[in-house]
Design goal:
5-stranded antiparallel β-sheet; disordered N terminus; alpha+beta; elongated
Amino acid sequence: MKGTAIWRALAGVWTPQGHAADASAAASGVAPQAPDRGQVRLGADGRFLEADAGVAEILGEAGARGEGKSIARLRLAVLKRDPSEAEFHEAIDHEGRQIDVMLRVAEDGTITADLEALARPAASPPESIAEVVTDALEFAPIGAVRIDAGGKIVGHNRFVSGWLGPGGRNALLGHDFMPLVAEQDRDRLRQVLADADPDGETSKSVDVVMGDGEAERFASIFVRRPQSNRDQRVIYLIDVSEQRSLELQFAQSQKMQAVGQLAGGVAHDFNNLLTAMTGYCDLLLQRHRAGDQSFADVMQIKQNANRAANLVRQLLAFSRQQTLIPRVVDLTEILSDLSHLLRRLIGETITLDLEHGRDLRPVRVDPGQLEQVIINLVVNARDAMSGGGRIAMRTGLTETVRPLRQGDEVMPAGEYVLIEVIDTGTGMPPDVQKRIFEPFFTTKDLGQGTGLGLSTAFGIIKQFGGYMFVDSTLDVGTTFSIYLPAWNGEVEVSVGDGLRRLDTDLSGTGTVLLVEDEDPVRLFAARALRGKGYTVLEARSGEAALELLKAENPDIDLMVTDVMMPGMDGPALIREVRKDRPTLSVVCISGYSEDALRQRIADAESVAFLPKPFSLKQLAQAVKHATQPVDPGS
């Protein structure tokens, strides 16, 4: 259908001059305008001789001078004429104008061309509504299919053949429509076809999957029974694949958020239990030294508690609430040191190639956690190459000028340090790639994987402010790409030496206010600190701590408080206490991430952080460092 068809149908005829023609002109198909006339004389050989003023009106000034395509067309007509003809007719087109030409041969051989230019034809009469609708549906961005009583396609528009078939007009004529619908949805569609309104006034709808499962498309189908043929059905298909994809992504993100909240809550409770378990093991080990018959039993309990703590850290990493100790590091140095361990892990049948990029920028990460991510990826690559193969690790500095997108993840433009782990393993199909970072999803045999490895790695990289993408091809291999933001600030000074000097003597003096709602944790911590020489005041909640300070007004040197407590939590307690004691030192204990804590405390730099689960030694170190800070430069 021409672009003006609907306009003509609705608004009538529109002439070249832009004026609406009257009804009689529209009916005749010719605009009410007098024709133009002119004469051109040509030689017997087609040479231009002269033209009158009328030719300039018809063919323009160039035509009046014997130039232009229209005059060339006349010359060609003269050269091709039959010499016996005294008169012959020619029709030419000049810029959309139909020009009739009568050519007469004079006695001297010259030829006179009488030009009569009719006005441009007026627009065709308005098309019928049926023609307009039929033409509109042919190129509509939705599908329209007509099927007979047996379900065979007797008509369809271009959208259907391009979306469901090989393309082209009438490509699906004679085909059964039902096989185009996924098998699980066919019964519902048959019911809708049977229930179609006999009067054709209303339409029934159903959402179905189109395709054979490999290239699924989602469609919202509306069915009508045409009044012209009650045995047939007209099916309209609206492509809702993108909408369904967004719905599935939203549902998946909600599910992941719920799992993350659950994992974080479970990890928090387990961290309290594990803190008490490892803490009381440390207290027992003070009485049962190596050689005591109970020493081995206590160590077994402590080792298993530590294994449980590692699992809890994985849950927290997935929910992005893991405690990290980030610092600015040289990635080349970390990977070089780690490569020795990796070569022992992968065995002799697999080669490991490490290629360092030039001029790498530093990155701010927790080195231990980044190493765990790399180890996890390399071990997965090893498991995908049971018959041997090659693993390549490459680093480089890359700058993206536009956001990079893969699936739901969108990485902003910027400067990143890239780590690629490439293997020549079995690869992964697309459906596995979509779920590879989901918690508890694994392709390994039962008992060989928890399904937390890659989800943990993904969570750790996200906590670094980075991004992780995967690209895999079956029987070719897999590439994991880690993008870490390049560090632009100053390199931090390590205080590790100063902290290590505290290991030799963990005793201390002073008064410590201990606020912890979990009785086992509080009892262990209080007993441990009293054993190191501190005076300990205990409180089971933030409100109880404020009452104690208000009633007794003791001189305290340090407050050790849990972050998550019912009622008044740790950050709120810190703000209240520092109204009267602004310089009081504080140590926060929590199973959640330090970054999440510091965002909730105004003067976070003066607050130390001790992650759960902690040992007796770690607690004593944190308290002594808070009460007797060591100058790292001393």
